[in-house]
Amino acid sequence: MADIVFEDVSRVFPARDGKGEVAALRGVDLRIPEGELVVIVGPSGSGKSTLLDLLAGLDAPTGGRILLGGEPVTGPGLDRGVVFQQYALLPWRTARSNVELGLEAKGVDRRQRRERALEHLDLVGLSAFADHYPHELSGGMRQRVAIARSLAFDPEVLLMDEPFAALDAQTRERLQEELLGLWERTGKTIVFITHDIDEAVYLGRRVAVLTARPGRVTDVVEIAFGDRAAREDLRSDPEFARYRHRVWSLLHTRESDVDQEVVPVG
Ligand SMILES: Nc1ncnc2c1ncn2[C@@H]1O[C@H](COP(=O)(O)OP(=O)(O)OP(=O)(O)O)[C@@H](O)[C@H]1O
Question: Mind listing the UniProt keywords for this protein, alphabetically (predicted)?
């Protein structure tokens, strides 16, 4: 089972002004079962991006360890696809050719690359735009291409760092809906980072709440709406408001920890 386990994970950076240290994460414990959609929510500066970078293998913890399928994460790998806030598409490549990128790295032959790219563009509703360049696409479409690119090389885990934050509200809601559909169809493990409580409650089957810096998981809220499809406007549902309040309360419990941001050394 490709479960993800954070065991007492810390990440301390040297302060940018050269004086002391910044503890971005301290003692993070979290288990994410395979196939789960987990949202990690936390205030600005609580170490959300740091946590995702560690899981992506783009950075290493200064304490504790992260296991994926029982193996410690020691660097980036094709078992994890990452989608960032900025689309990170290559402007000189078409949508299809951008989706093919990861497949090239995997050594997939040309014909299969093309097929897989088109299949995944279809999955995100962009078949008709395969030959368009990023500048010819809207923000939402570009982010869909980025998602298709991450899924095309069939990673076990999809890591998403505030992927919809730069989009307008309507597009964001549409992409949230699409992401849920994608998750149901593909059964991928998805770790989604956001600072937006509504987004967390709407998407997450479990919402892990980080304290203010240094980030630590205070609680994991299980979200179970029963029959989502039966509710026309889930966000207006009283149950949604209750979950929202629960997460909000957890986010506001440990703000005094901000004082610990800089720890002098020596
Ligand atoms: N390379 C670095 N060097 C020094 N400090 C860093 C470094 N990277 C992150 N930090 C600090 O670690 C803390 C957590 O940063 P991080 O970007 O992970 O938070 P975040 O929760 O993603 O914030 P936001 O929601 O604002 O993007 C911040 O105080 C940040 O300044």
Answer: ATP-binding, Nucleotide-binding, Transport
